Amino acid sequence: MPPTARFVCSFAAEPPQEPAPYGRWADTLREHFLGAALGAAAGEDAGEVGEIEFFPDRTWGGRTFIPATALTAGGWELFGYVSFIPASEDGGEASGFHAVADITDETAERNPEWGLDLNDEVVGAWRGEQGRTASMTLVWGRPLRPGGAIVTAELADLAVDQCELAENRFTLIAPDDYRSDFLDVKLWSARGELVTAESLYVED
What we know:
Helices cover 9% and strands 46% of the residues. The protein is mainly beta.
């Protein structure tokens, strides 16, 4: 195989390893997420926070990221993630918890034209050739079109991460904004047919 002309990291994160959080573990994640989310909602008439939805875990750079979203009674959506250093194999517990959250009124319910409901946060950087840097971006969401089975993140039509749907949710970690290329997120059927695609960036 000849050398590639597009030198960029691909499939850098571990695939999801754990089932959806439940019990005391879900309570721990919920506490950290709500602490960040309530700070993000300060000053907004958000109302009571509804049920928190957790998305598949992804691990990169020694940390595990579990995204989350929650709708509020005021029609807003809280979105963010909880990250931590995973438990060690010798029985040590997860540690180093860090939560990030934000709030938006741009919800899927108000945008019926969306094919995917996406959220994203930059969680690090990857240095490439000639000093170029990619923004390592956590992307999570759910499809708003039926028939999908797997989601890919693509940079200039090059797949750089993928995730199977789990309870109709997905999480990706992929390089973005590299060599003037930007991520597209695509939903595929089990037969490899494109169902829908969205850019992370809103077009004017």
